[in-house]
Amino acid sequence: MPIEIVLETHSVSQDNERGIATGWRPGRLSERGRRLAVELGERRRKDGLAAVFTSDLTRAVETASLAFADTDIPILHDWRLRECDYGDNNGMPAIELHQNRSDYLDKPYPGGESWRQAVHRVSRFLGDLPLRWSGTRILVIGHVATRWAFDHFINGIPLEELADADFSWQEGWEYRLA
User: Fold this and answer.
1) No. of H helices and E strands in the chain?
2) Candidate list 4, 8, 10, 152, residue with the active-site label
3) Distance of alpha carbon 89 from alpha carbon 75, whole angstroms
4) Which of 39, 96, 115, 140 has the largest CB neighbor count within 10 A?
5) Is 39 annotated as catalytic?
6) How many CB atoms lie within 10 A of CB 156?
7) Where is the signal peptide (predicted)?
8) Torsions phi, psi of 21, nearest 5?
9) 143 is catalytic
10) How many CB atoms lie within 10 A of CB 66?
11) Angle between helices 31-44 and 58-67 (to 10 degrees)
């Protein structure tokens, strides 16, 4: 049976507001981000969710905790849902890091990973979902690498196309994993 997946990115972090590419650094939500996380919960609490999966990075965990506080929906942390590891470039200005993003599609960032490696890491999460969650609706709180993996492995969008596209935030993306 298929799994319905709702993907939401972590809420606005202090680094987002400062234009910093956090990568594998933990990051913390800003005041605005905390308000938006509560709004996420209000949007999704009664959405028929069997579980919430979140990246284990602080900004994603904080989003899930605020959104689903006082509910019975289990929140499960999974390191495979992390953002791409920019290695030595974690914490640098986002505009500088992302101007040559396609250069790192297959070549790892110094001391980190490539986008293809990050997307493959997330695909292992997708491969494990049917073991327990077939026929359910789940929510995933992740990052750009999480969305790229879902778009690539579920919707068949080439990574080259994703790397060249601008990221535009929205209130969740819906996927169906057969």
Assistant:
1) 8, 7
2) 10
3) 30
4) 140
5) no
6) 7
7) none
8) -85, 100
9) no
10) 19
11) 50
Neighbours of 36 (CB within 10 A): 19
Active-site entry in 4, 8, 62, 83: 83
- Provide, for the chain, the percentages of residues in helix, strand and coil under a 3-state DSSP scheme, each rounded to the nearest 5: 45, 15, 40
Cα dist from 160 to 41, 55, 74, whole Å: 33, 24, 35
Local confidence pLDDT in tens for the 178 residues of the chain = 999 999 999 999 999 999 999 999 999 999 999 999 999 999 999 999 999 999 999 999 999 999 999 999 999 999 999 999 999 999 999 999 998 899 999 999 999 999 999 999 999 999 999 999 999 999 999 999 999 999 999 999 999 999 888 777 778 999 999 9
